[in-house]
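Quick one: structure for this chain?
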Amino acid sequence: MCNSFNQKFLDEAAKNMQDENFNDNNSHSVFMQNAVDHAIEGMDKNDGGPFGCVIVKDDKIIGKGNNRVTSNNDPTAHAEVTAIRDACKNLNSFQLEGCVIYTSCEPCPMCLGAIYWARPEKVFFGSNKKDAANIGFDDDFIYKELPLPYDKRSIPFEQLDRDYALKPFKLWEEKENKTKY
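Got it. Here's what it folds into:
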């Protein structure tokens, strides 16, 4: 049974939780809008495609990027990758521990891999891969390529000199002063 004091306390706590959720959602929206703004700015400067990304730690943007594929002649210069590089440089770390990524679009397979290697806490994305495909950025073919046998892929893969290629792995196993990641 709830007396009036307890009810007032519960009502106050519920209101505070709603305010916190509003502030949380509001700050997430601000960071997402920042990522989208980077996409538009980069596109306006002819840096590359319409994609932007910011990386946040402790409510501060510590990395930002937009797609620079065509301006850098670099097929890996996607917004997420450029933002990860910027954030890691600024943090002086190869991992994004405690960071949140806000990206204007659902990451492609390459960016998804980079994100997992960087190990952020969470990722928010704006538009999705279907939205991107609708304007000519369709990476669904990459997902379809992954399970195919190497020689059946549109770009054939062939393993060569495996025994020799294992040499650095053996040396890595023996290395005593390595930085694990």
